[in-house]
Amino acid sequence: MDALVGVEQQISNLIDDRDFRTIVGRFGKFNLFEALGAGRAELRHSNFLAFLLSPARPHGLGSEPLRRVLRAFAAEVPENERVVHSLEIAVANLESAIVYRERWSVDILIEIPEHKLVVAIENKIGAPEGGDQLSRYLKIVEEFYSGWRKIFIYLTPEGIAASNDRWISFNYGRLTNIFEEILKDSYVYKSPEIESIVRQYVDLIRRRVVEDNELKKLALNVYEKYKEAFDFVFDSRPKQENLLDCLFPLIEENENLEFDNKAKSEKFFFPKKFGDVFNLCSENQWTKTRRMLLFEIKNEILKETKQNRVTLSLIIGPGPQDIREKIYKFAKSDKSIFKNPTSSPGKIWTTIYKNRLLDQNISMNFDDDDARIEKIQNSFQEFLDRDLLQLERACLEIAESIGLK
C-alpha cells in the first residue's frame, strides 16, 4: 500500500513537471501526417517526398526543394565519381524535371531531360533491402537511360550503407535539415499552408523516423526522476491481443481480396480473380471453401528470443498430387515472382512464395506493439503494391497452362 501511495505522489508530481510538460507539448499537438498514419510508413513518406521534389506540383516552392536536395546528393558522391557538381545544379533550370513514383518499382525516380541527369532514390524505413533489389534497379536505369548521367541514392533513417557500392547512402536527418533551411530562408516564398505542412512533416521525422537527441535527453531525465511511476504505468498498459488484427482492414477493404479463414494466429485469403479455379481440395482436408491455393499470414512468437515473426506465404494445400506438382514446378522455375519457395514440395502443404512482414531481428528494435503493427502494415501494403498482381497473374497463367481454366 505504501508503495502505491509513493507511485501516486510521483504521478501527481510528474503532471506538473516542466520537462514532462515540454515533452507532452511536442507530442500532444496535432500533426497532419500522424493523423493520416504516416509515422514510419515508407510508402507515404515516398509519396510526400515525390510531391515536394516535383517543381510541377502545386506546393508553390518551385524547384527549390529539388535543387537543394540534389546539391546535397551530389556532394555525397566521391569526387572522382561525381557526374554533376553542386555549382552546375545551383544554376541549372530544373523546372522541366519529372518525378516518378514506383517507375520499374524504384521508389522515386527524378528525370531531368534538359541536363540528361537521372536520380534514383530507394527509400527504406524499418525494412531491409530485398535480395538483389538494388542491383536490379540499377541495371534497369542504366539500360533505359544509356548516355545519361546518373545518381543512385539509398535513403534510410540512419544513412546505412547499401549492399551495392553504386548506391550512395543518405539519411533522413540531413533531409530534414534541408527542409528546415528552406523554411528559415526568407528569400524562398512559402504560403502559410505549405509552410505549416512542411513544418509538420519535419516534426514528424524528428519524432518518429530519426532520433531527436535533445528530446531523448529530456525524456531520460524525466524517467530517472519518476522511474517508479513510469514503470507502474507501463506494466498496467493493455496488452495487444493479436498483431494480425491490424491487417483486417487492409484485406477486408480491398475489393480484390477475400478472407478464407480468420484463425487467431493465422489468416487465409485469396484474390477474387482466382474464382473457383483452384477449388480442388477435398472436403474437410484444409478449409471449408476447398481451395488448394491460398495466401496465409502467420504470427509466431519464437521461443529463443520471445520475438514476433509475421510471415506472408502462398501455399499449395491438399489436392490432386499431379496438379500440386505441376503448380510447384512452374512456380519454382520463376523465382523473380515466386520468391523464397521451399526447396522441395511437401506431402500436404508446399510454400511457393514467402515474405516476412516482420522479422524477429527487426521486431527486437521496436519498443512496443504499435511500432510492430506499423511495420507489418507497411510491409503488407508494399506486398499489395509490388508482388500481389504479379503472383495473381502468374498463378492464373499456370492454371491455364495445366488445363484448370
Tell me what the structure shows:
The protein contains 16 helices and 10 strands. The protein has 405 residues and is of the alpha+beta class. The strands form 2 sheets. A 5-stranded mixed beta sheet has the order 1-2-3-4-5, with helices on both faces. Strands 6-7-8-9-10 form a 5-stranded antiparallel beta sheet. Helix 1 packs across helix 11 (227-236).
Strand/helix succession: HHHHHHEEEHEEHHHHHEEEEHEHHH
- Share in β-strands: 15-25%
- Secondary structural class: alpha+beta
Count of DSSP H/I helices: 16
Radius of gyration: 25 Å
The level of helicity is: 40-55%
- The whole-number mean of residue pLDDT values reads 82
Q: What's the total number of strands? A: 10
Descriptive keywords:
405 residues; alpha+beta; 5-stranded mixed sheet; 5-stranded antiparallel sheet; 16 helices; 10 strands
Could you write a compact summary of the structure shown?
By secondary structure, the chain is an alpha+beta fold. It has helices at residues 2-16, 18-28, 32-35, 42-53, 64-76, 86-91, 133-144, 172-184, 192-209, 213-225, 227-236, 248-252, 321-332, 360-364, 369-386, 388-401; strands at residues 98-103, 106-112, 117-123, 149-156, 167-171, 257-262, 266-271, 293-301, 308-316, 350-358. The chain contains 16 helices and ten strands.
